[in-house]
Design goal:
- The protein is α+β, with helices and mostly antiparallel strands.
- The protein contains twelve helices and five strands.
- Helix 11 links the parallel strand 1 and strand 2.
- It is rod-shaped.
């Protein structure tokens, strides 16, 4: 016998998935009916009492009418409260009406109607605040016990335990539902925050990558334009460099988009030398740095800081000299690796930190480091610090 995949899919659609939010209004309606319909079993005794013929015609009609009103109020109270809660005063009033109807029906039609107090207890646990429910449920059980003893029903004492258990169980169910809803909201918030963080990471990476590469392309394009009339061979070399930089920028952007971009400090030192030379800035940069024991995240953050600093020197400072130093220092918080970039330019015309420095500060703080940037006596200085493992002195570019 073969299974029909389409039929299985239809059956799966009709099933109520546990632990998941309602898919549509029909799913929500079915869940409410399921939760509320379970408790309708306690109507068996009142219904049996009415159809047994033990009451007069007027009593039977009054019983059916009272039962219909009681069930209508109960369903309105519990069914509506599972969706959009009713006003607190209206909830309290309806609970009191349920208790009064249950008491009236028990006094007039006999002890077979004591099961209605189970619905009053359920309504208290499902609709009242937790503190109020802790008082209302025992009060309902006590009222039922008094009515049962007055009617001469010995089973009222056993029914007290059921009323208490069913009421407090409903409070637990309500708290579980509320916790589940809050967890779903928290999960959605975490997902939104993760998406925002990823967008910020991508924005920082693209700004740092393209700002540096486009600045270098612009400088080399201008240089090639000046060389073209008299030195076509040198201009062709500049054009070849532009092609190489643009290809590398494309690779870097792809890596940044996929989240695998981790620049290396050695590569950024070499790139800084090329960028400063193209901008006719006298550079004092160390050829390499000993990064033994330095975490990869710290090195990556420092490489981003060097890239941003050199981009600012080339694009905004108007400097003629730039010095880069990489030092290892011992602080109270442990060993740190310090990058210093100082130039003799103006530091730009902005009144405050730009997007690059703001994103760089966030990136360094995420790696456990810090950033200092500002004007000095003869120019502008940027200092970035990141945690480093124990190791020897790294040296400077002097």
């Amino acid at each position: 016998m073969t299974k029909d995949p389409a039929a299985d899919h239809v059956r799966a659609e009709r099933m109520i998935p546990l632990g998941e939010p309602p898919r549509d209004r029909r799913d929500l309606f079915l869940r409410k009916v399921l939760w509320i319909g379970v408790w309708l079993v306690f109507l068996s005794q009142p219904v049996h009492d009415l159809v047994s013929g033990s009451h007069t015609t007027a009593g039977t009609v009054a019983g059916w009418l009272g039962l219909a009103v009681f069930v209508g109020i109960y369903l309105t109270l519990v069914f509506r409260n599972m969706g959009t809660p009713l006003p607190p005063r209206l909830v309290i009033a309806l609970v009191l009406v349920l208790g009064a109807l249950a008491t009236l029906l028990c006094f007039t039609l006999g002890p077979s109607w004591l099961g209605l107090y189970c619905y009053v207890s359920v309504a208290c646990g499902a609709t009242l605040p937790l503190r109020a429910a802790y008082w209302a449920i025992p009060g309902t059980a006590g009222l039922m016990l008094l009515v049962g003893l007055h009617a001469g029903e010995r089973d009222a004492q056993d029914l007290v335990i059921l009323v208490l258990l069913i009421g407090f169980a409903m409070t637990g169910v309500v708290q579980l539902i509320r916790t589940t809803v809050e967890l779903r909201k928290a999960r959605a918030t975490v997902a939104q925050l993760a998406a925002n963080e990823e967008r910020l990471r991508l924005a920082r990476d693209l700004h740092d990558l393209l700002g540096h590469s486009l600045s270098l392309i612009t400088l080399k394009s201008e240089l090639a334009g000046r060389m073209l009339p008299g030195h076509p061979d040198k201009a062709a070399q500049q054009v070849a460099d532009i092609e190489q930089v643009s290809r590398q920028a494309l690779v870097d952007v792809r890596e940044a988009v996929t989240g695998y971009r981790r620049p290396r400090l050695a590569a950024e030192l070499a790139g800084a030398q090329v960028a400063l030379a193209a901008a006719a800035v006298i550079a004092d940069i160390p050829a390499e740095a000993d990064l033994t024991g330095v975490p990869e995240e710290s090195e990556s953050a420092l490489a981003w800081a060097l890239r941003e600093a050199i981009t600012n020197v080339v694009r905004h400072s108007g400097a003629s000299r730039c010095t880069v130093e990489v030092l290892r220092r011992q602080t109270l918080d442990g060993p740190t690796l310090e990058l210093s970039v100082e130039d003799n330019g103006s530091g730009g015309s902005g009144k405050g930190p730009g997007n690059g420095l703001t994103g760089l500060t966030e990136r360094l703080e995420k790696a456990g480091g810090s950033l200092e940037a500002g004007r000095v006596k003869h120019g502008f200085r940027l200092v970035a610090r990141v945690p480093a493992g124990a190791g020897a002195h790294v040296g400077s570019g002097a």
